Every structure is written in structure tokens, then in C-alpha cells.
């Protein structure tokens, strides 16, 4: 079910009435309903989106600015916009070193004058389509705030300012979304893709206006605020129950979180609204930082659950970022996967360095490669392969080959094909013996040996050996 506001206007009462009747006809046509208690008819002034709209005039709603409560601690006083130096003098004195924070009548008067100045027409200007549009926003533990310079974001290009520098890369139109991006950030990216904007980073201290507003939200009892809070609560509740580990239950997670010294300190500071960890929230007694935070005592069980299917480091990280969070979770995942005995056993060997290919001979039988296929079907086979024509000669031998028998086989082959210029073989004794070396010298054959332990360097002969066996 959707809820939206409708404003019907006219330059005269008669024109406004005519437009109102036309609007109601369209509502009846499409079966749309209005809340009679919220309908205001023939108003000369309306309050809408924090502004008061009337004939040829737009001004700030005093009630919105007046809802900004006085700061009670030094840290929040820093968030007050400090451009009006004279007005803010009593407030800035509270920020001096060795000064006890004490909210005096002078501070209260300065604060009230500052709110009136923000609500005055000197700050608010009507929309000008010729000027650039800028949207500056910020979020804190207690609220979300934004300063919108112009309102027609779908029609105009605008600048989006944030004090979160990583978001400038994630929400950049020209940047590729990182693989490890959390699911909710991917949803935000999809939503923002419908706008024409440029994102820019500015430090929080330089964005005092919206940083101040986000930390002092107005308490409202509207349907929208209630719906958002209910949605956040339902999301947190579902997230708590999502990770199905029999040994890690909601109650156990809550108990171990209270025992963890670091997490309990963060939770206490959040409850007292005096924390330096703005990314954390508490829901149903569980600490969240995007996802549920896992105390140190349960991290081992969660890691084993995430890696139970023995997927790689990247897959485990992607899965972990959907469900859990703790500091240095990525390094813990890397250590777990690299030390997993089952993963190491099936890990692919490092890529082999490419072997240098033999030069192509100029003519047939210029270079030959020889090797033995042995033993195979109770026989040894001498394989001689020509590097140019790929012609192969195979000689069977019923007994173990020797240098003498090897020479006799080659003499028979050379009698049909001639003597080669170069002969390549491995470092077997029958090829390196003095008798065989003398034979090659007398025949005018230059003998070369392939690299020890690398049969691929004698690939023409090895290829024929494999073909023979299969």
C-alpha cells in the first residue's frame, strides 16, 4: 500500500476549485482514496517538506528548526554550524581545552538566535533552475539528515556530498562495483542509478550543517517513521536468525557478546550515547555493524560453518559479508582457507613455466628425437621421430636395450633415411655411454640431451611414445 501527498493549487479560488474537482474525478476513476481528516481545502498557506509555501514566497518552517534540541555534551556542541562567528562565540568557548562543559543562559540565547538565523529568508532561497543543484547528507546513530539546495533531482544534475570516502568509489557512476560490496550497498547503488549526480567527499568537520542535523533528529510520530523503524527491526530480527548453526544460537550470541570485553564496552557506550564507533547499532540485545557482530569466542565456529563446503577465499569472504562481521574477518578467512588440509590437497599446482620451443628444421631428417617406450607388453620399443616431417620409426626389442643394440637399430634406420645432423635424447646410460658417443662422432651426428626431469623438451619422441601406449 502506497501513501503520497497531493497539492492542488490555482491562482484564484474558482480556478483552485475547478482543479480540485478534476483531481477528485481522476481519483474516483482509478479507485484512489483520500484521508478526510488530513485534507485541507482552500488554504492560502501550507506547510510542506519543512517549508511554508504561500503566494510568491517560500520560507522555512519554524517548527522544524525549533525541534532542534540544545546540546548536552561537548561532542555534540562541535556539530553546530560555526559560520556565524559572532553568534556562536559562547558555544565555541565550550570547545576550548581545559574548559568544563556548562550550558549557560548565554549559550542558550546564542543557540536560539542561531536557530532563528537558519530559519530566516537569508538562508532559504527559492529554486533557481539556472543554478547547480547540491544534496549533502549524513547519518548518525540517532538520525539521518540532508541539506537540499534544489528539489527537482530527477530533472537536474546535482552534487551528492558525503563524509564517507569509500562511498565515493562504490556510488561512482564510472566505477565498477567491487565484488565484496555488501548487499544493502548494492541496493543503494541500484536506487541511485536513476539520478543524474556527481558524488564528492568532504570531511564531516567541513559539513557541519548536515552533520549537526543528523545527530539531533526531530522526534515525530508519523506513519513513515514508524514503518521505517518496523522495517529495520524486522530486518535485524531476520538477520539474527539467518545464520543456521546449531551451536551458535541467538541466546548464546547475546550471552557471549556481553562477556566479550571489547563488544560490551561498545554496547555500553552506545546505550549512553557517548561512542566513537558510529557504525554500530544495537537491536534486540545484539550488536550490529552492517551485519551481526560475532564475539571472539564464537568466531571459530562461524568460520568453520562458512567454509564447510571448502570453497575458495573470495567465495567465503562474499558469504561472510552477507551474514557476519568482526574486525580482521578477511585476514581470518584467508588464514583458515590456506591452512585447510583438504583444500591444500586438491589445490592446483602452480602454472608451469613455458618451455622454449625447438627451432623448425629447414629440411626433413635434419633433426631427430629418440626415446624408448619400455616396458610395454613385455617389449621395449625404440621410437625415432623426425622434427620436420613428423615421420616416426619404431623398432621392437624383446630384451632390455643396451648401447650396442641401440647402435644396431639406428644403423638400420639410418640406412633407409640417411644420417641426421642433430639427434636429441634423454640422459639414459645407453645414450650417454662412451660407445654410443663414439658412434655418433663417426657418423657425423651432433648429439644433444634434453633437460633432466623435463621430458617435454623431447616432445616429438614423447608424443609418439604416448600414442604407442594408447
Explained architecture:
The protein is α/β, with parallel strands linked by helices and 470 residues long. Among the domains are: 1-43, no CATH class; 231-345, Endonuclease III, domain 1; 367-469, Nucleotidyltransferase, domain 5 (2-Layer Sandwich). The protein is built from 19 helices and 16 strands. The chain has helices at residues 13-29, 62-66, 74-77, 89-93, 105-119, 165-170, 183-192, 208-214, 223-242, 250-259, 261-271, 296-306, 313-323, 329-338, 341-345, 403-417, 429-432, 434-443, 459-469; strands at residues 45-48, 51-54, 57-60, 133-139, 144-148, 158-162, 197-201, 281-283, 286-289, 291-293, 324-325, 367-376, 379-386, 392-397, 422-425, 446-449. The strands form 4 sheets. Strands 14-13-12-15-16 form a 5-stranded mixed beta sheet, with helices on both faces. Strands 5-4-6-7 form a 4-stranded mixed beta sheet. A hairpin with a 2-residue loop joins strand 12 (367-376) and strand 13 (379-386). The radius of gyration is 40 Å and the shape is elongated. The two termini are 71 Å apart.
Give the helix/strand layout:
Elements (H helix, E strand, L loop, with lengths): L12 H17 L15 E4 L2 E4 L2 E4 L1 H5 L7 H4 L11 H5 L11 H15 L13 E7 L4 E5 L9 E5 L2 H6 L12 H10 L4 E5 L6 H7 L8 H20 L7 H10 L1 H11 L9 E3 L2 E4 L1 E3 L2 H11 L6 H11 E2 L3 H10 L2 H5 L21 E10 L2 E8 L5 E6 L5 H15 L4 E4 L3 H4 L1 H10 L2 E4 L9 H11 L1
Parallel strand pairs: 4-6, 6-7, 10-11, 12-15, 15-16
Antiparallel strand pairs: 1-2, 2-3, 4-5, 8-9, 9-10, 12-13, 13-14
Helix pairs in contact: 13-14
Amino acid at each position: 500500500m502506497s501513501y503520497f501527498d497531493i497539492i492542488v493549487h490555482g491562482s484564484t479560488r474558482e480556478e483552485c476549485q475547478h482543479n480540485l474537482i478534476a483531481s477528485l474525478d481522476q481519483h474516483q476513476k482509478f479507485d484512489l482514496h483520500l484521508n478526510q481528516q488530513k485534507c485541507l481545502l482552500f488554504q492560502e498557506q501550507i506547510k510542506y517538506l519543512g517549508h511554508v509555501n504561500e503566494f510568491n514566497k517560500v520560507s522555512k518552517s519554524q517548527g522544524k528548526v525549533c525541534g532542534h534540541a540544545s546540546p548536552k555534551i561537548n561532542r555534540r556542541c562541535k556539530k553546530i554550524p560555526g559560520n556565524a562567528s559572532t553568534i556562536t562565540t559562547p558555544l565555541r568557548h565550550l570547545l576550548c581545552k581545559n574548559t568544563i562543559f556548562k550550558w549557560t543562559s548565554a549559550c542558550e540565547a546564542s543557540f536560539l538566535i542561531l536557530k532563528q538565523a537558519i530559519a530566516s529568508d537569508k538562508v532559504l532561497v527559492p529554486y533557481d533552475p539556472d543554478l547547480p543543484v547540491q544534496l549533502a547528507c549524513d547519518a548518525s546513530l540517532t538520525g539521518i539528515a540532508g541539506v537540499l539546495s534544489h528539489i527537482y533531482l530527477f530533472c537536474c544534475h546535482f552534487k551528492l556530498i558525503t563524509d564517507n570516502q569509500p562511498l565515493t568509489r562504490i556510488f561512482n557512476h564510472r566505477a565498477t562495483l567491487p565484488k565484496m560490496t555488501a548487499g544493502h550497498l548494492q541496493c543503494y547503488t541500484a536506487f541511485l542509478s536513476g539520478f543524474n549526480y556527481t558524488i564528492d567527499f568532504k570531511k564531516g568537520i567541513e559539513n557541519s550543517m548536515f552533520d549537526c542535523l543528523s545527530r539531533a533528529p526531530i522526534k515525530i510520530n508519523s506513519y513513515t517513521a514508524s514503518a521505517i523503524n518496523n522495517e529495520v527491526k524486522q530486518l535485524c530480527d531476520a538477520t539474527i536468525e539467518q545464520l543456521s548453526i546449531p551451536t551458535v544460537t541467538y541466546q548464546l550470541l547475546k550471552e557471549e557478546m556481553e562477556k566479550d570485553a571489547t563488544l560490551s564496552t561498545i554496547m555500553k557506550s552506545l546505550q549512553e550515547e557517548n561512542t566513537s564507533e558510529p557504525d554500530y547499532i544495537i537491536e534486540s540485545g545484539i550488536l550490529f555493524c552492517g551485519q551481526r557482530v560475532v564475539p571472539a569466542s564464537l568466531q571459530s565456529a562461524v568460520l568453520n560453518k562458512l567454509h564447510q563446503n571448502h570453497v575458495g577465499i573470495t567465495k567465503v569472504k562474499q558469504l561472510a559479508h552477507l551474514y557476519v562481521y568482526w574486525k580482521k574477518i578477511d585476514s581470518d578467512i584467508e588464514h583458515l582457507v590456506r591452512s585447510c588440509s583438504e583444500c591444500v590437497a586438491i589445490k592446483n599446482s602452480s602454472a608451469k613455466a613455458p618451455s622454449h620451443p625447438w627451432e623448425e628444421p629447414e629440411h626433413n631428417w635434419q633433426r631427430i628425437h629418440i626415446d624408448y617406450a619400455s616396458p610395454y607388453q613385455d617389449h621395449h620399443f625404440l621410437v625415432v621421430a623426425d622434427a620436420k616431417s613428423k615421420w616416426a620409426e619404431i623398432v621392437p626389442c624383446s630384451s632390455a636395450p643396451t648401447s650396442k643394440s641401440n647402435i644396431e637399430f639406428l644403423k638400420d634406420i639410418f640406412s633407409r633415411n640417411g644420417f641426421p645432423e642433430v639427434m636429441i635424447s634423454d640422459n639414459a646410460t645407453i645414450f650417454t655411454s662412451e660407445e654410443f658417443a663414439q658412434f655418433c662422432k663417426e657418423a657425423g651426428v651432433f648429439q644433444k640431451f634434453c633437460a633432466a626431469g623435463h621430458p617435454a623438451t623431447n616432445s616429438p619422441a614423447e608424443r609418439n611414445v604416448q600414442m604407442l601406449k594408447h
